[in-house]
Specification:
Number of strands: 21
Strand order of the largest sheet: 17-14-16-15-19-20-18-21
Shape: globular
Low-confidence stretches: 1-8
Radius of gyration: 21 Å
Oligomer: single chain
Mean pLDDT: 91
Distance between the termini: 35 Å
């Protein structure tokens, strides 16, 4: 599922297959010094520069017709500090490799998203997150970072060093420079007890505040056209470890979550009228289960069915209203939606352009199978999200621009002023950044 599919003719494509770019040249630097030289040379040649991760963004945030920087050689752990409880990792390291390496050292991140194919810098630069009552996005766990700026200088940033850059660059959208290393807070590895069970949609909405308050990590999937959800509660546990058995794991995670789901997508595309029936069957296929394991084995799961996604963060207290409006819209629209809607939460953080910046947030994600016409559904959903001052995930489909963001992010001007200072000639500009940050 790793994705930076590079076409034979020098075309780069993202994982969702909805973005393609033809860079003038591709470079794979093996060191920070080499990267600095690449940036200086691009500036001399009048070419824009973009770094790409594993292509998991559905927006064109990494697309460029200039110099495309691939991070494959900037990988691995630089340092583990057991006194400060931090790990410093090269920017191109996939989250999967980081999680596995930390586990071998008896360490773990506090929270993570539900897939781990992305690079650490790609995931943090776009604000990738999981769900948490008290623990925030992956970027919220950053303690320091190293950034190569437009003039080729290397900046080290933390709360003490270049603090104003640190405030913004943790979710920097690739607009402030190229991140080369990240220092994360880590903790001794722990066990999570997972409880997954179906629950009626009406009950989840009625009890949302309690479900959120009583669990460290609560999320649920609602199947449109049904009154059903699948809920997930992850809480720390003293043990013992009770992993999902290999056969059960294959059956539930591969066959049901990916295999049956893929077939459902094919049938749904061939015969859209069958989708509500398929949704009812799918929502009942996943039965309740509990298991206890180390964090990355509980938080993350394989995603083999390719899709396109839109996700908005709204104020947490608005989530039930937004979901009711979303359900009404789907019921009245005649749309046939074959993918579940995913709902997660995050506490407020202090990162300038974090979707949870300054407010406790709930995330609502809508998906469509890769290749299916998603515009009508996403447009209708986006209308609901923006009416509630929603903030779209930077790496997922949305149509918002700088004018909108200046309205929903109180510190938006702080970010653009910093960008003016660090990249006055817009070396790291592309069409996406021109739209979301303004020219």
């Amino acid at each position: 599922m790793s994705s930076t599919a590079s076409g034979r003719n020098g075309t780069w494509r993202n994982w969702g297959g909805n973005v393609a770019a033809r860079p003038a040249r591709e470079v794979t630097p093996a060191s920070v010094e080499e990267l600095s030289a690449v940036i200086r040379r691009a500036a001399e040649d009048g070419l824009k520069v973009k770094a790409v991760g594993s292509g998991h963004s559905f927006t064109s945030i990494a697309a460029t017709d200039g110099v495309l920087i691939r991070p494959q050689l900037l990988t691995g752990i630089r340092d583990i500090d057991r006194v400060a409880m931090t790990v410093t990792v090269e920017a191109g390291t996939p989250l999967k490799r980081l999680n596995m390496a930390l586990a071998r050292e008896g360490l773990s991140l506090t929270n993570m998203g539900d897939i781990m194919e992305q690079t650490v810098s790609g995931a943090t630069s776009t604000g990738t997150h999981g769900t948490g009552r008290d623990s925030g996005s992956i970027a919220a766990q950053i303690k320091g970072l190293e950034l190569v700026t437009a003039d080729g200088r290397v900046l080290t940033c933390s709360e003490k060093e270049n603090p104003e850059v640190f405030a913004a660059a943790r979710i920097g959208l690739g607009a402030l420079g190229i991140v080369t290393a990240i220092t994360f807070a880590v903790e001794p590895i722990f066990l999570l007890a997972a409880r997954e069970e179906p629950m009626p949609f009406a009950r989840v909405l009625a009890q949302f505040d309690e479900l959120w308050a009583e669990n460290e990590h609560f999320e649920f999937y609602w199947f449109p056209h049904t009154g059903s959800t699948n809920t997930k509660r992850n809480n720390r546990s003293a043990g013992p470890e009770k992993p999902v058995g290999q056969v059960a794991g294959w059956f539930e995670d591969e066959l049901l979550s990916n295999g049956v789901f893929q077939v459902a997508q094919w049938v749904g595309r061939a015969a859209p009228a069958t989708i509500p029936t398929i949704a009812r069957i799918s929502s009942k296929a996943l039965s309740a289960r509990t298991y206890t394991d180390i964090p990355y084995k509980v938080f993350t799961s394989p995603r083999r069915v390719r899709f396109v996604e839109m996700e908005y963060a709204v104020a947490r207290e608005a989530v039930v209203d937004v979901l009711r409006e979303l359900r009404t819209m789907v019921d009245r629209s005649g749309l046939r939606v074959s993918f579940p809607v995913e709902v997660r939460t995050a506490p407020a953080d202090d990162i300038t352009l974090s979707t949870a910046s300054g407010r406790d947030s709930a995330y609502i994600a809508v998906h469509m199978a890769k290749g299916s016409p998603y515009q009508r559904y996403f447009t209708a959903a986006e209308r609901i999200f923006t009416a509630h001052e929603g903030r779209p995930h930077w790496g997922k489909v949305h149509t918002r621009d700088a004018e909108y963001f200046a309205h929903v992010y109180p510190r938006f001007g702080e970010f653009t002023a910093l960008r003016d200072r660090l990249d006055p000639d817009r070396l790291f500009q592309n069409d996406y950044l021109r739209r979301v940050l303004g020219a």
